[in-house]
């Protein structure tokens, strides 16, 4: 296990280009992904070009919950101890994290910290998970920005559909997987804009990953949700908790905490 992590974190900070066969799609078992920093053009100061467009407003989708699925703490404990240690060390000061299991019960994890975005995935050989390996996209020093949002339900007749200049074209991101649009749609409009805007000038496919827990009470449901968007140059993420009264639509939810992060990633 140490050798695997030393190989991944010594210089390259990424997973191998090709892996052995993995049985199934992303929501069941891991798929190859191209989401680590690559060399490319950008302004001299390292910041993305500014876009005056209006970010796309997404509609909330369904958030299915399987009560048999272990929560993130239990899934995290399923990972080898040395793997957990190395992931947290490489990420730095933790901003958010989660762990889940695939349909075969094998765990994987995402850790976003002030030094990097780390992912831990199983390596399959002959259709079975043999070990876990990690990858890290390094956060560019000094680029991390954290912001909290006041997410009270909107008032009737208030505000534009989304931030941006009136009459500006709607800018659409290519989110992978597309189901991420339904997760993003649960957040308030200013949060949706914060998460998407930095990706607009690059015109790249944006990888989306998320985690949520829902608790159903007689009068309301409580949701804890995290979402991370990343490309080869940028990462944005949000963590929030909300309460939704029984029978109410998601736009009437009461968000008790909404913390967002964004940072540039170091090209490789």
Q: How would you describe this structure to a colleague?
A:
It is a single chain. This protein is of the alpha+beta class and 268 residues long. It has 5 helices and 12 strands. Strands 6-12-11-10-9-8 form a 6-stranded mixed beta sheet. A hairpin with a 3-residue loop joins strand 10 and strand 11. The longest helix is centred in the N-terminal third of the chain and has 11 residues. The protein is globular. The N terminus is likely disordered.
List the helices and strands and how they pair.
Blueprint: H1 2-9, E1 54-55, H2 72-78, H3 81-91, E2 94-101, E3 107-113, E4 116-125, E5 128-138, E6 145-148, E7 170-171, E8 174-176, H4 180-184, H5 189-197, E9 205-216, E10 220-230, E11 234-245, E12 254-264
Parallel strand pairs: 1-7, 8-9
Antiparallel strand pairs: 2-3, 3-4, 4-5, 6-12, 9-10, 10-11, 11-12
Report a brief summary of the structure:
This protein has 268 residues and is of the alpha+beta class. The chain has helices at 2-9, 72-78, 81-91, 180-184, 189-197; strands at 54-55, 94-101, 107-113, 116-125, 128-138, 145-148, 170-171, 174-176, 205-216, 220-230, 234-245, 254-264. The chain is built from 5 helices and 12 strands.
Question: Strand pairing plus helix content: what structural class?
Answer: alpha+beta
Work out the helix count: 5
Q: Could you give the distance between the termini?
A: 24 Å
- Count the E strands: 12
Strand order of the largest sheet: 6-12-11-10-9-8
Give the rounded overall mean pLDDT. 81
């Amino acid at each position: 296990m140490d050798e695997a992590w030393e190989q991944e974190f010594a210089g390259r900070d990424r997973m191998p280009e090709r892996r052995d066969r993995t049985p199934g799609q992303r929501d069941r078992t891991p798929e190859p992904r191209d989401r680590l920093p690559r060399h490319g053009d950008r302004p001299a100061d390292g910041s993305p070009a500014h876009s005056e467009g209006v970010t796309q407003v997404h509609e909330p989708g369904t958030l299915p919950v399987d009560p048999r699925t272990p929560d993130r703490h239990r899934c995290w404990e399923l990972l080898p101890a040395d793997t957990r240690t190395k992931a947290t060390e490489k990420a730095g000061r933790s901003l958010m994290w989660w762990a889940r299991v695939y349909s075969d019960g094998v765990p994987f994890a995402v850790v976003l910290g002030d030094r990097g975005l780390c992912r831990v995935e199983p390596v399959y050989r002959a259709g079975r998970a043999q070990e876990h390996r990690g990858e890290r996209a390094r956060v560019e020093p000094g680029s991390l920005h954290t912001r909290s949002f006041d997410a009270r339900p909107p008032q009737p007749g208030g505000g534009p559909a989304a931030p941006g200049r009136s009459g500006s074209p709607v800018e659409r991101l290519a989110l992978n997987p597309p189901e991420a649009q339904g997760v993003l749609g649960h957040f308030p409009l200013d949060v949706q804009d914060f998460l998407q805007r930095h990706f607009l000038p690059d015109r790249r496919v944006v990888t989306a990953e998320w985690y949520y827990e829902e608790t159903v009470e007689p009068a309301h449901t409580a949701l804890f949700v995290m979402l991370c968007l990343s490309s080869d140059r940028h990462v944005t993420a949000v963590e929030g908790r909300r309460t939704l009264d029984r029978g109410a639509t998601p736009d009437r939810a009461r968000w008790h905490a909404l913390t967002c992060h964004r940072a540039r990633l170091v090209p490789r």
